[in-house]
Amino acid sequence: MTRASKMASSLRPGEPLRRLLSGSELPEELRGELEAALAESDPRLPFAFVRRLHRALREAGSEMYLHELLEGSEIFLPEVKKPPRNPELVARLEKIKARLANEEYKQITRNVTCQELNRYGTLADLGRQVRSTKALLVNIINFIITVGATFVCTYLGSQYVFTEMAARILSAVIVASVVGLAELYVMVRALEGELGEP
Fold it and tell me: Which InterPro entries does the annotation name (predicted)?
């Protein structure tokens, strides 16, 4: 007996079942039931009745198999009723799902920190940037003051050497340029040291 025959509840007969009425090997009792069922507007035969028909045919010496008898028939399966779920089991499953989801979330976010989530960086990064900017600003102001003071000192001191204004200005520019270049060299070396370069 096939699994479908165990599960089937009824069927709408096909042509092989309808042809049985014209044959002579059916017992009168089964023939009457089959005629009554086929006379309805929407004929449906219980599957147990079809098995009885097949058994009667085999006893009468017919070589027809059950699947040949069912050919062209529309089989109706009973609606499977799911048993109600145990509420205690459902609650345990929900707890397990929540725990697994939480563990998966922790595994995904284990390398993420709150500091990395901030687009603009942490306060420590901001402090480093402010200190770096402050140091750069101090170096620039120091450079301007040094070069300016060198120019003024050279200009005022050169009055004892040169009497002409052009010579005094030229000497002040030359000395201020040399001091400026020396100051730039020192500033670049200091910045390289801050950046970790050799």
Answer: ATPase_Vma12
The pTM for the full model equals 0.37
Residue 147 CB coordination number (10 Å): 19
Task: Give every CB contact of residue 20 below 8 A, 6+ residues apart in sequence.
Answer: 26, 31, 34, 53, 57
Q: What is the sign, positive or negative, of the torsion defined by CA atoms of 153, 155, 156, 162? A: positive
Q: Can you name the residues that pair with 46 across neighbouring β-strands?
A: 10
Helix axes 123-157, 165-195, angle to 10 degrees: 160
Residue type, 48: A
pLDDT tens for 139-178 read: 889 999 999 999 999 999 988 888 899 999 999 999 999 9
- Taking CA 192 as the corner, what is the angle to CA 186 and CA 196, rounded to the nearest 5 degrees? 145
Torsion of CA 55, 61, 62, 67, to 10 degrees: 40
d(CA 110, CA 108): 6
Residue 176 neighbours by CB distance under 10 Å = 20
Token pair 């059950």 is at which residue? 66
